[in-house]
Amino acid sequence: MEFTVKQIATLLGGEVAGNETLAIRKLAKIEEGRPGDISFLSNLKYEPHLYTTQATAVIVDRSFQPRKPVEAALIFVENSYTAFTRLLEEYHKLRSYARAGVEQPAFLGDGTQLGEQTYRGAFSYIGRNCRIGNNVKIYPHAYIGDNVRIGDNTIIHTGVRILDNCIVGQSCVIHPNAVIGSEGFGFAPQSDGTYKTIPQLGNVILEDFVNVGSNTTIDCATMGSTVIRQGAKLDNLIQIGHNVEIGKNTVIAAQTGISGSTKIGDNCTIAGQVGFAGHLNIANGTKVGAQSGVGKNVTEEGTAINSSPAFGLKESMRSLAVFRRLPDLDRRLNELEKKTEK
Amino acid sequence: MEFTVKQIATLLGGEVAGNETLAIRKLAKIEEGRPGDISFLSNLKYEPHLYTTQATAVIVDRSFQPRKPVEAALIFVENSYTAFTRLLEEYHKLRSYARAGVEQPAFLGDGTQLGEQTYRGAFSYIGRNCRIGNNVKIYPHAYIGDNVRIGDNTIIHTGVRILDNCIVGQSCVIHPNAVIGSEGFGFAPQSDGTYKTIPQLGNVILEDFVNVGSNTTIDCATMGSTVIRQGAKLDNLIQIGHNVEIGKNTVIAAQTGISGSTKIGDNCTIAGQVGFAGHLNIANGTKVGAQSGVGKNVTEEGTAINSSPAFGLKESMRSLAVFRRLPDLDRRLNELEKKTEK
Amino acid sequence: MEFTVKQIATLLGGEVAGNETLAIRKLAKIEEGRPGDISFLSNLKYEPHLYTTQATAVIVDRSFQPRKPVEAALIFVENSYTAFTRLLEEYHKLRSYARAGVEQPAFLGDGTQLGEQTYRGAFSYIGRNCRIGNNVKIYPHAYIGDNVRIGDNTIIHTGVRILDNCIVGQSCVIHPNAVIGSEGFGFAPQSDGTYKTIPQLGNVILEDFVNVGSNTTIDCATMGSTVIRQGAKLDNLIQIGHNVEIGKNTVIAAQTGISGSTKIGDNCTIAGQVGFAGHLNIANGTKVGAQSGVGKNVTEEGTAINSSPAFGLKESMRSLAVFRRLPDLDRRLNELEKKTEK
């Protein structure tokens, strides 16, 4: 993909100072700009880079006045940061939606309906009786079982596994090697010490605008559905147990694990490597610090918790501060004991 | 799959009150039952749902007497919970064993022997000189290296990787994208600060009835075997280092990691996100709390440990309780010091 | 692969006592040796096994004198441990480089250049405009996107995903199901509580001699590159966020997570299940204990830290020791209070 400085200025509604005909191929930070790149200057802390950058063009605010000569072409716009973000998005869209058609060999099961403008990569597998929406992109090596439904504009990256009967909404993105709908971890202990597998017959429902990170696993429900609500964002290597429910617009960072049947509310923010016990209810807007271990319900909305086991964030920070001084506390206690013995 | 209420009652040895001819297609919880579903009532806490459920049929205990009119057909059996569990299992079996034959293209290496009634999905890969037992199901995109043996009735799900020379027992289930037998993490530091790879030439042995969760990784031994003993159950995203041994019927929850050469005994219960150092011996029946960090041997059977670093469960609970009151302890110590100074 | 005892002795520059014509097929520990195996005796603690082993041959030091009759053939060399390690490496090389050519079907995009002596497994996918070096091995089901460069002698195992524009150096090993270059976790909160995806347009650069473990995920940079420097070794199930930089010869154990834009120095040693916050700078030679949570910069080279949140290793060990005695401290404080009240 290649555009001229002028084409980009037109898209952004900006004016050019410098050579409009130069070719732009890539976006870059101003301090890393190379010939063919376009960059931006918003925070004036970075202004010195403007005079040394090798980028071909730089987007700046209309209010900005250079204090030295600039090699790069300048594109003046109302808000350079917003304009650059828009470029990023346009560029991203071009890349994401570039693929279409089917690469052979690809497997398509009987009774499956495909929408319009889908992409199916080589070695992709779609089972029987699925309904795949318009503009869905299914990358190479993706596996989709039987009776799966996928909404419009969803991207299924390479190596993703979506098992039988799962439902994926519109405009979702499932990153490479994520597993959706594998059997939950349910075993009934027997009197001889062995375990009997409890069949897991439910499915997983991802509502619209859900993101699932690479190598994340979401188990199907024993019966019914494990549900990830609209707009929730899951990072990489997360474990979601059977019958869990994640609320709308809740964001979960990498390597967090949520045990079976726990319900996380809407608009929660959960940091990395957090663990949740099973069968909990976590109120809307809960914030959980990294590496916390959550073993109890959170009933009040907007609560911030931390530590393992988790309790109030402020309280935990105070306890952790004293923790570092424990050897000192111990010593002082010893001294006091000696004193009072006398 | 569709059955009549009568067919199901006959299977369960029960009697029907209501319309025997209705069609059943799915199992559901009584509070989520929809037309075409069968459900059950065991715990009388859920009795109110019996009078409102849309399920087509409900299994109840022979001793149960409805207090209001019921829309659904009732199937009376000795123990409704046991009967429903049996239905679950039958349904599960029907689903699991439905697939057979081979979907093309599939890769089969020279010298490999396949048992009877195997299933090989499209894009599955089986290397050279393997022995695959009867009724083994190898799903699409599964990879099996050279010289691998797999016992009867084992299920290898989509995207599983089983590397050269590994041995998998009978009736195992390996969930999507698990990796069995990749090279362990062994590097010898050199005098110039670089590391030299220590070749990892051993394999992994899974005995019979082992379950391995999605995206779990089990490294091969440096020499000899990493061994997962009969009936052990591993959840998702677990890391098992080289030369580890996991005992019979030991259950390990998601995201736990076990470092090289550690031996875990039989019938242990290990919660999620636990870490084990290398070269440890953990006695039979040990119970480890979530997020614990185990750095020492456990020599006494049936010990419960917790915390990071881990020590006795009870002791750790007491320490954790005082931890939350540390700012208060600190304050009291300050006061005492002031008092005794006077 | 089969060699005679004599062939191996010649390779190692050793002398044989016993039958030189016996066939060797495998390497084993002396206590696990079976007919056809070769083993070694270095640490004399293991000497008793020499007199009972079933191994066909054992490598021993030239200075060693058996005190009893030995069944196995003995190969005398200067240093038995070094000699055995060399055998391990030779054996490993034979196995690793055995595969060559292409198994069909395999997908090769337009404009991609392949080096000499490459291996492409069945169902491997290489996108458009890639440059693949000499002797690169790409196993079945591996996915390589568009515009990817891979240096000579690199091994890409089964199920690995390398996304568009990534650069992999020479002599790297990427283990099964690792994901390189997937989109980072970047979302801008909107006023209505939803999140907007921040496009991630950068790539990942792995320099030479880098190892990446199974199911590890390395996100691409928002712009620019996520960089893993020469000789760094990453274990399984690790998460590397966008724009992270890992220094030369740094070793990271399994299940550790590093948040976006953090820079780890050279020659660091990071244990398992560690978490790093984002935007940190970690000095060269830092050592981090297992399950630590690193929330602050480390500015001094060679620092050892531990605990969550992490602080000095020694200090943390002292605090953790007192932590276990907290109930006792509490009790003593109570007693002192009673005493001073009187």
UniProtKB/TrEMBL annotation, chains A, B, C:
Protein transport keyword on record: no
Catalytically driven reaction(s): a UDP-3-O-[(3R)-3-hydroxyacyl]-alpha-D-glucosamine + a (3R)-hydroxyacyl-[ACP] = a UDP-2-N,3-O-bis[(3R)-3-hydroxyacyl]-alpha-D-glucosamine + holo-[ACP] + H(+)
E.C. no: 2.3.1.191
Organism the protein comes from: Spirosoma liriopis
An annotated Gene Ontology molecular function: UDP-3-O-[(3R)-3-hydroxyacyl]-glucosamine N-acyltransferase activity
Listed name of the protein: UDP-3-O-acylglucosamine N-acyltransferase
Xref: CDD domains: LbH_LpxD
Domain called UDP-3-O-[3-hydroxymyristoyl] glucosamine N-acyltransferase non-repeat region: residue spans: 22-89
InterPro entries in UniProt: Hexapep (IPR001451), Hexapep_transf_CS (IPR018357), LpxD (IPR007691), Trimer_LpxA-like_sf (IPR011004), UDP_GlcNAc_AcTrfase_non-rep (IPR020573)
Domain of life: Bacteria
Gene name linked to the record: lpxD
The protein's enzyme class: transferase
Keywords linked to the UniProt accession: Acyltransferase, Lipid A biosynthesis, Lipid biosynthesis, Lipid metabolism, Repeat, Transferase
Family: Belongs to the transferase hexapeptide repeat family. LpxD subfamily.
Pfam families: Hexapep, LpxD
Residues at the active site: 242 (proton acceptor)
Function statement: Catalyzes the N-acylation of UDP-3-O-acylglucosamine using 3-hydroxyacyl-ACP as the acyl donor. Is involved in the biosynthesis of lipid A, a phosphorylated glycolipid that anchors the lipopolysaccharide to the outer membrane of the cell.
Record pathway: Bacterial outer membrane biogenesis; LPS lipid A biosynthesis
Subunit structure: Homotrimer.
